[in-house]
Amino acid sequence: MLKLLQNRRVAYMGTPHNSASKGDIAKTVLMPGDPLRAKFIAEHFLEDAVCFNRVRNMFGYTGTYKGKEVSVMGSGMGMPSMGIYSYELFSEYDVDRIIRIGSAGGYADDVHVRDVIIAMAASTDSNYASQYRLGGTFAPTADYGMLSAAVEAAQQKNIPVKVGNVLSTDVFYHVDSEYATRWKNMGVLATEMECAALYMNAAYFGKKALGIFTVSDHLFTGEELSAEERETTFTDMMEIALAI
Asked: Per the database record, which ranges form the Nucleoside phosphorylase domain (predicted)?
Protein backbone atom coordinates (compact mmCIF):
# COMPACT_ATOMS: atom_id res chain seq x y z
CA MET A 1 0.00 0.00 0.00
CA LEU A 2 2.82 2.43 0.82
CA LYS A 3 4.33 1.96 -2.63
CA LEU A 4 0.91 2.42 -4.22
CA LEU A 5 0.37 5.70 -2.38
CA GLN A 6 3.80 6.96 -3.39
CA ASN A 7 3.12 6.19 -7.05
CA ARG A 8 -0.13 8.12 -6.99
CA ARG A 9 1.26 11.23 -5.33
CA VAL A 10 0.72 14.52 -7.11
CA ALA A 11 2.85 17.51 -6.16
CA TYR A 12 0.84 19.27 -3.46
CA MET A 13 1.81 21.30 -0.43
CA GLY A 14 -1.13 20.14 1.65
CA THR A 15 -3.15 22.44 3.87
CA PRO A 16 -2.30 24.14 7.18
CA HIS A 17 -3.88 21.11 8.91
CA ASN A 18 -3.13 18.16 6.63
CA SER A 19 0.18 17.15 5.08
CA ALA A 20 -1.30 14.50 2.78
CA SER A 21 -0.61 14.63 -0.94
CA LYS A 22 -3.26 14.23 -3.60
CA GLY A 23 -4.20 10.56 -3.87
CA ASP A 24 -3.13 9.65 -0.33
CA ILE A 25 -6.70 9.75 1.01
CA ALA A 26 -9.46 7.35 -0.02
CA LYS A 27 -12.85 8.42 -1.32
CA THR A 28 -14.42 7.24 1.94
CA VAL A 29 -13.10 8.51 5.27
CA LEU A 30 -14.08 7.39 8.77
CA MET A 31 -13.74 10.24 11.28
CA PRO A 32 -13.65 9.66 15.02
CA GLY A 33 -13.11 12.75 17.12
CA ASP A 34 -10.16 11.22 18.95
CA PRO A 35 -7.03 10.81 16.77
CA LEU A 36 -5.97 7.89 18.98
CA ARG A 37 -9.20 6.13 18.03
CA ALA A 38 -8.23 6.67 14.39
CA LYS A 39 -4.89 5.01 15.16
CA PHE A 40 -6.68 2.14 16.91
CA ILE A 41 -8.95 1.55 13.89
CA ALA A 42 -6.02 1.63 11.47
CA GLU A 43 -4.05 -0.87 13.56
CA HIS A 44 -6.91 -3.29 14.26
CA PHE A 45 -9.18 -3.11 11.20
CA LEU A 46 -7.18 -1.95 8.17
CA GLU A 47 -4.59 -3.86 6.18
CA ASP A 48 -1.35 -2.18 5.04
CA ALA A 49 -2.34 1.07 6.77
CA VAL A 50 -0.12 4.06 6.00
CA CYS A 51 -0.11 7.28 8.03
CA PHE A 52 -0.73 10.28 5.76
CA ASN A 53 -1.03 13.00 8.40
CA ARG A 54 0.55 13.86 11.75
CA VAL A 55 0.04 17.64 11.75
CA ARG A 56 -1.14 18.69 15.24
CA ASN A 57 -1.16 14.95 16.06
CA MET A 58 -4.42 14.63 14.10
CA PHE A 59 -3.53 11.20 12.80
CA GLY A 60 -4.82 10.05 9.42
CA TYR A 61 -4.33 6.64 7.80
CA THR A 62 -5.20 4.93 4.53
CA GLY A 63 -5.43 1.17 4.16
CA THR A 64 -7.77 -1.49 2.88
CA TYR A 65 -10.72 -3.25 4.46
CA LYS A 66 -11.85 -6.45 2.72
CA GLY A 67 -10.02 -5.31 -0.39
CA LYS A 68 -11.51 -1.82 -0.51
CA GLU A 69 -9.51 1.33 0.14
CA VAL A 70 -10.62 3.38 3.13
CA SER A 71 -9.11 6.16 5.21
CA VAL A 72 -9.57 7.06 8.86
CA MET A 73 -8.71 10.41 10.40
CA GLY A 74 -9.44 12.25 13.63
CA SER A 75 -11.65 15.33 13.53
CA GLY A 76 -10.89 16.82 16.93
CA MET A 77 -13.50 18.17 19.32
CA GLY A 78 -16.26 20.58 18.36
CA MET A 79 -17.86 21.88 15.20
CA PRO A 80 -15.05 24.34 14.34
CA SER A 81 -12.54 21.47 14.29
CA MET A 82 -14.81 19.10 12.35
CA GLY A 83 -15.66 22.02 10.07
CA ILE A 84 -11.99 22.50 9.17
CA TYR A 85 -11.05 18.88 8.56
CA SER A 86 -14.18 17.80 6.71
CA TYR A 87 -14.12 20.98 4.58
CA GLU A 88 -10.56 20.23 3.48
CA LEU A 89 -11.26 16.55 2.84
CA PHE A 90 -14.23 17.41 0.62
CA SER A 91 -12.69 20.41 -1.16
CA GLU A 92 -8.95 19.67 -1.33
CA TYR A 93 -8.73 15.87 -1.33
CA ASP A 94 -11.77 14.89 -3.43
CA VAL A 95 -13.31 12.78 -0.65
CA ASP A 96 -16.86 11.71 -1.49
CA ARG A 97 -18.10 10.23 1.80
CA ILE A 98 -17.32 10.90 5.45
CA ILE A 99 -18.69 8.73 8.25
CA ARG A 100 -18.36 10.25 11.69
CA ILE A 101 -17.90 7.56 14.33
CA GLY A 102 -17.91 9.11 17.75
CA SER A 103 -19.15 9.06 21.29
CA ALA A 104 -22.37 10.66 22.45
CA GLY A 105 -24.09 11.45 25.71
CA GLY A 106 -27.45 9.80 26.08
CA TYR A 107 -30.64 11.81 26.56
CA ALA A 108 -33.58 9.48 25.83
CA ASP A 109 -34.89 7.11 28.48
CA ASP A 110 -34.48 4.06 26.22
CA VAL A 111 -30.85 4.91 25.40
CA HIS A 112 -28.10 3.26 27.46
CA VAL A 113 -24.31 3.17 27.63
CA ARG A 114 -22.77 1.29 24.67
CA ASP A 115 -25.95 1.65 22.56
CA VAL A 116 -25.34 2.58 18.92
CA ILE A 117 -27.17 5.58 17.49
CA ILE A 118 -27.35 6.53 13.80
CA ALA A 119 -28.02 10.22 13.28
CA MET A 120 -30.80 10.83 10.80
CA ALA A 121 -30.52 14.53 11.61
CA ALA A 122 -28.32 16.76 13.75
CA SER A 123 -29.94 19.64 15.57
CA THR A 124 -27.54 22.26 16.85
CA ASP A 125 -27.14 25.30 19.06
CA SER A 126 -24.17 26.42 16.96
CA ASN A 127 -23.99 29.48 14.72
CA TYR A 128 -22.17 27.45 12.05
CA ALA A 129 -24.96 27.76 9.46
CA SER A 130 -24.94 31.56 9.57
CA GLN A 131 -22.13 31.60 7.00
CA TYR A 132 -24.58 30.43 4.33
CA ARG A 133 -26.85 33.46 4.86
CA LEU A 134 -29.97 31.39 4.28
CA GLY A 135 -32.40 33.65 6.10
CA GLY A 136 -33.91 30.70 7.94
CA THR A 137 -33.11 27.53 9.86
CA PHE A 138 -31.22 24.82 7.97
CA ALA A 139 -31.87 21.20 8.98
CA PRO A 140 -28.61 19.20 8.72
CA THR A 141 -29.44 15.63 7.65
CA ALA A 142 -27.60 12.43 6.77
CA ASP A 143 -27.30 10.91 3.32
CA TYR A 144 -30.23 8.50 3.14
CA GLY A 145 -28.39 5.88 1.10
CA MET A 146 -25.63 5.65 3.68
CA LEU A 147 -28.11 5.69 6.55
CA SER A 148 -30.14 2.88 5.00
CA ALA A 149 -26.98 0.85 4.34
CA ALA A 150 -25.84 1.34 7.94
CA VAL A 151 -29.16 0.10 9.32
CA GLU A 152 -29.01 -2.93 7.02
CA ALA A 153 -25.41 -3.67 8.02
CA ALA A 154 -26.35 -3.45 11.70
CA GLN A 155 -29.22 -5.88 11.17
CA GLN A 156 -26.95 -8.35 9.39
CA LYS A 157 -24.47 -8.17 12.27
CA ASN A 158 -27.26 -8.41 14.88
CA ILE A 159 -26.26 -5.07 16.34
CA PRO A 160 -29.30 -3.15 17.67
CA VAL A 161 -29.32 0.52 16.70
CA LYS A 162 -31.50 3.53 17.30
CA VAL A 163 -32.08 6.01 14.48
CA GLY A 164 -33.13 9.59 15.09
CA ASN A 165 -32.11 13.11 15.96
CA VAL A 166 -28.97 14.09 17.86
CA LEU A 167 -27.87 17.44 19.22
CA SER A 168 -24.54 18.91 18.07
CA THR A 169 -23.73 21.37 20.80
CA ASP A 170 -20.94 23.91 21.21
CA VAL A 171 -21.00 23.59 25.00
CA PHE A 172 -19.73 20.56 26.93
CA TYR A 173 -20.17 22.00 30.45
CA HIS A 174 -23.53 23.77 30.26
CA VAL A 175 -24.45 26.12 33.12
CA ASP A 176 -28.18 25.85 32.32
CA SER A 177 -29.35 22.86 34.36
CA GLU A 178 -32.52 22.47 32.27
CA TYR A 179 -30.81 22.68 28.88
CA ALA A 180 -30.57 18.92 28.28
CA THR A 181 -34.12 18.36 29.50
CA ARG A 182 -35.56 20.72 26.90
CA TRP A 183 -33.79 18.91 24.05
CA LYS A 184 -34.75 15.53 25.48
CA ASN A 185 -38.39 16.64 25.53
CA MET A 186 -38.13 17.29 21.77
CA GLY A 187 -37.19 13.66 21.13
CA VAL A 188 -33.44 14.12 20.76
CA LEU A 189 -31.71 10.80 21.47
CA ALA A 190 -28.26 12.02 22.48
CA THR A 191 -25.80 14.88 22.33
CA GLU A 192 -22.39 15.22 20.67
CA MET A 193 -20.33 18.09 19.27
CA GLU A 194 -19.47 17.64 15.57
CA CYS A 195 -22.15 16.02 13.40
CA ALA A 196 -24.08 19.12 12.31
CA ALA A 197 -20.95 20.76 10.88
CA LEU A 198 -20.14 17.60 8.94
CA TYR A 199 -23.67 17.39 7.52
CA MET A 200 -23.60 21.06 6.52
CA ASN A 201 -20.24 20.78 4.79
CA ALA A 202 -21.43 17.69 2.93
CA ALA A 203 -24.57 19.53 1.80
CA TYR A 204 -22.54 22.54 0.66
CA PHE A 205 -20.16 20.44 -1.44
CA GLY A 206 -22.79 17.98 -2.70
CA LYS A 207 -21.07 15.10 -0.90
CA LYS A 208 -22.33 12.38 1.48
CA ALA A 209 -22.09 12.11 5.26
CA LEU A 210 -23.36 9.99 8.11
CA GLY A 211 -22.93 10.03 11.88
CA ILE A 212 -22.78 6.80 13.90
CA PHE A 213 -22.36 7.06 17.67
CA THR A 214 -21.76 4.91 20.69
CA VAL A 215 -23.29 6.18 23.91
CA SER A 216 -20.41 6.74 26.33
CA ASP A 217 -22.41 8.28 29.16
CA HIS A 218 -25.96 9.26 30.02
CA LEU A 219 -26.75 12.75 31.22
CA PHE A 220 -29.78 11.65 33.24
CA THR A 221 -28.85 8.23 34.64
CA GLY A 222 -25.20 8.97 35.38
CA GLU A 223 -23.89 5.91 33.50
CA GLU A 224 -20.45 6.47 31.95
CA LEU A 225 -17.41 4.76 30.45
CA SER A 226 -13.73 5.53 31.03
CA ALA A 227 -11.55 7.40 28.53
CA GLU A 228 -9.69 4.18 27.70
CA GLU A 229 -12.96 2.33 27.04
CA ARG A 230 -14.08 5.14 24.74
CA GLU A 231 -10.83 4.88 22.79
CA THR A 232 -10.67 1.12 22.28
CA THR A 233 -13.99 -0.65 22.82
CA PHE A 234 -16.51 0.99 20.48
CA THR A 235 -16.16 -1.79 17.93
CA ASP A 236 -19.85 -2.17 16.98
CA MET A 237 -20.10 1.25 15.38
CA MET A 238 -16.69 0.76 13.73
CA GLU A 239 -17.84 -2.47 12.13
CA ILE A 240 -21.07 -0.87 10.89
CA ALA A 241 -19.14 2.04 9.38
CA LEU A 242 -16.61 -0.22 7.67
CA ALA A 243 -19.40 -2.44 6.32
CA ILE A 244 -20.87 0.42 4.29
From this structure: 28-238
